[in-house]
Amino acid sequence: MSTRAAQALRHSGDVVCAVRGLTKTYPAVRGRRGTPGTPEVRATDDVRLDIRRGEIFGLLGPNGAGKTTLVRQLTGLMRPDRGSVEILGHDIVRHPERAARILAYLGQESTALDELTVSLAAETTGRLRGLDVRQARAERDAVLDELGLGPLAGRPIKKLSGGQRRLACFAAALVGERPLLVLDEPTTAMDPVARRAVWSAVDRRRAERATTVLLVTHNVIEAETVLDRVAVLDRGRVIACDTPSGLKERVAGEVRVELLWRDRAPLEVPEVAALQDRVVESGRRWTLRLAPEEARAVVATVTGGAAFAALDDFTLATPSLEDVYLALGGAAQQGLVKA
Amino acid sequence: MSVVPAEVLPGSVLAVDETARPAAAELGPRARLWPSLCAVYRAQLSRARVARIPLLFVATFQSIGIMILMRGVVDGGAEAQAVVAGSSVLVVAFVALNLLAQYFGQLRASGGLDHYATLPVPPAAVVLGAAGAYASFTVPGTVVTALFGCVLFGLPVAHLWVLVAVIPLAGAALAGLGAALGLLAPRPELATLLGQLGMSAALLLGVLPADRMPEVVRFARDLLPSTYGVEAFARTFGPHPDWAFVLGDLAVCGVVGVVSLAVATWAYRRAAVR
């Protein structure tokens, strides 16, 4: 986003969360016997973001890009070395304890709730968000009903499947209304029914109360469908921030060609050998990012003649957010995890 | 209160620059100490059904086994009183110190504390709620052990009511210590180790009669908070208990409890925001 747009937003008062120059460095660890040392790591590097009221804002990046570190600083769980975080007018760096009264956080871990029943986990979380017993029970019943968790209410969370457990923790995060939801990979391991329950619960809150959502994900498909805007993180830096379609326009001139060979690439065919240094290879699969006319030529080559005999399958696709990430110079050559 | 708007006061012009921001949004309610303490206590107690009952049996059988062993060495008198009191308080040490240290150590290492740290709940409510629940788990085991010991060694059961004071006070001291160890230990294995060591100390220094011990060990025994619970309980088996001493011992437990729970609360704060 341009600086001018950020300024305009700040004046409009519609920014829920403003992050400026956020930097956190993990110190170097000296190696000990048997364990090699690790160098100093910039987990977040001069991050600047504006999250607007009522939007689903995504943080996308590969493992180790600094998504979780960034979220921990926004939720008051970690102090940054430098920079500011302002949520709904409150300075979270100076008053980290206020974050708990503004936002609900769904972390990746559920150990605090594991041994409770679904119903007690939701009720206790509501009570710890300052609700009285009656309110907490009413909200618990409403949320469990909304997410279809009623039949599981009496089961300990530990005994549920991964996706159900995640849904139960999501339910706990919703009890005790908050204007900002921070969700760290909420739909991991969920089946499509549970995913739909999560997104319709989020949509209802956005429509009724203009709830804002900050979503951490490395699921590219989900990112493309649910996010209003997305910040792409790479090695602690925001390398791009726009709507998913805006980001994809940046690589609109490219097409992704995937070739799956039967057992190995036919390098004896000169046209195939010529592609070898432009390809991202993983086992029998070759991935190429090409201009449309080049792509046509490649497809014509491999679907005819000697190369075709060695070909198992091929696909031609318009770019995804993953291609955007790689085109922007993302460090991880394997790209994002595509679930 | 001044009725002049802040903007027109001299000197405030600098503060209201182009970055004038909208008024800060209203914060959600803060969870008050007692209701949230009760909520944590209730949630922790419910965990007993799932995870703690087998361990309660272990704690009780361990103490009963020790008394049966000691029956061969000790016959009656002050030594028998020390053995029964020590074995009963050992149940408290096993659950409140050892298991609570493990619980908090694991919670901290796995990131489970984030759940509480992102809720507007006072740290004391989390620590006291968990410590209270673990102290409550010890009640049945301690009572069963005390009754069995009285029958085994032929001690009077008239003053067993003193457990009503001994369990919560020794429980507070040992649970506070357990919580502090669990939250301060840099790694969960270390929290487990410290909890086990604390329990072993309570076992060796609490159950074995004190007057057979060398001076150094007796000094270590005086440093251990469970000792005062044991002494208070042991004194009440006598024909004419000296209640002033009993109260004194229990007061030491109470003071250690307050201090260690305060340390645990501080450790929780420290562990929650890194």
Explain this structure.
Chain A is 36% helix and 26% strand. Chain A has 339 residues and is an alpha/beta fold. In chain A, the strands form 3 sheets. A 6-stranded mixed β-sheet of chain A has the order 6-7-8-3-9-10, sandwiched between helices. In chain A, 44% of the residues are buried. The two termini of chain B are 40 Å apart. Chain B is elongated, with a radius of gyration of 24 Å. Classes of the chains: A alpha/beta (339), B mainly alpha (274). The A-B interface holds A 10, 13, 72, 75-79, 86, 88-90, 96-105, 107-113, 115-117, 120-121, 123-125, 127-133, 156, 158, 176-179 and B 19, 21-25, 27-32, 35-36, 39-40, 42-43, 46-47, 50-51, 106-107, 110-121, 125, 272-274.
| General form of chain A | globular
Percent in helix of chain B: over 70%
Largest interface: chains, residues each: A-B, 50 and 40 residues
What is the 3D shape of chain B?
elongated
Keywords:
heterodimer; A: 339 residues; alpha/beta; Rossmann fold; 2 domains; 6-stranded mixed sheet; 4-stranded antiparallel sheet; 13 helices; 14 strands; 36% helix; 26% strand; globular; B: 274 residues; mainly alpha; 9 helices; 73% helix; elongated; disordered N terminus
